[in-house]
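Sequence in, structure out. First:
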Amino acid sequence: MYYSDYSELQNSNPLAIIRIKIIILAFAFLIGLSVATNIRAEFSATLRGTTNYVWRGFTKSANKPAVQANIDYEHATGFFLGTSASTVNFGDRGFSDRSNVEITPYLGWSFSATDDWRVDLQFQRYIYDGKIFNNQSDYNELYAFAHYQDLFTARVSFSPNYYNRDHPAADFGITGRFPLTETVNLSSGIGYSLARDVLEYDYLYWNAGISWHHRYGALDLRYTQSAFFNEKEVPDRDRWLFEPERLGPTIVFTISFGF
């Protein structure tokens, strides 16, 4: 996480500073929890840098690099919780109280449905250190994942109040993986987002790429693109200025370190 300079942090909304302190405490809590229960639990952490924070077919970093981190704790019972954080840029630099950091604490439960299928149920909160186009935009989202071995994943998510705009949104996606070697994988995915009432469009997005991982590091090179549908006509007086940029053919490179 970063700010453009120290003075920007000092002049930020006090609520943003409180949120950052909460996330630091959450990271410390997860570390302590893992140490206290390491016999029956798995703890992991990841730090990554990416050339573009692409999320569901649009960029959250204005097509610029982003720094991200994740810390995760999973108990032997299948209960898990964690927190992710990323730098963000929604293209609203003309507003003084803009968001620079996205924090996403989550918790859930993972269980085996059959020998080959695993199900994850997850609750996640998206928290921003400022506003998005001068609007408070924190929101909750519910997820369900179905994994077939390590080869296929289907996902559905639902937010009852997407970006805190008083409208729901849903998203559906599938991802496939094919191992070329023990350390190299091909993968691709496709998704469809029903977000017309909030973002003025529904849209389809897809990606394909190759990943290499070894011990504590990983590299990922990915092609991604999106297409928008069902544009909603909104009077200027009612428009929220955040309108995701149409993502044309885009190459994203990500490097990760973790344990």
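Second:
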Amino acid sequence: MEKTTKIHTRNLSFSYNGKSILKNISIDFRENRITAIVGPSGSGKSTFLKILNRLWETIPGCAMSGKIEIKFAGRFQDIYQQQYPVTRLRRQVGMVFQTPNPLPMSIFKNVAFPLELAGKNDKKTIQAMVEKSLKIVGLWEEVYDRLGTLALELSGGQQQRLCIARAMILRPEVLLLDEPTSSLDYKAAKAIERLLLKLKKQCTILVVSHYLDQVQRIADAIVVLREGKIVTQELSPGK
């Protein structure tokens, strides 16, 4: 593996109720880059992201084989080793979904929620981290005077940035995004794109997208999935 490799998969296969979804995938992803995963609907793109965060394990009928290693703090870790806790993985690998999913609580509590799960209880530390995370996603100036407001009252674009702030508050080394702008208008989508270009300095980003123009704007590399197999891996033009 190259020194710049962040995620390393070998012979990865996945099935659901006996139907093959991913077939013998071996690929490396480089760190501090945005890699776009594209392909037809049903080709396994979203499933691939969920495997990197172990989000499928409680779904009956699923089966996986192969190996996935992610480099954390400079060392590769097999994320499916029996002794490796999924709670630690999800602090290091953040996930943002297609539809914004703020929790039915205040803006502040939404962003602070992962800190509470991680056992942090110092109020000053939590307040500082929430403010920093909201500033990272460009939301602080829009909400600083209404942090106690229900997060569901935010616009769609604001909700998605809030979800990214929540995913980033524990400073994950990998950020996975599944169609993060598909439910947003043009202006909100462009704001998310600008944000991702900034965030790749802090973490490695994998993003599923159906928008080829968006892929050309933000991606450093493109992976094409078709029928559960990688058919193309290339650098985005000009990258």
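Remark: The beta strands are 5-16, 19-30, 34-38, 62-72, 75-78, 93-96, 174-178, 204-208, 221-226, 229-235.
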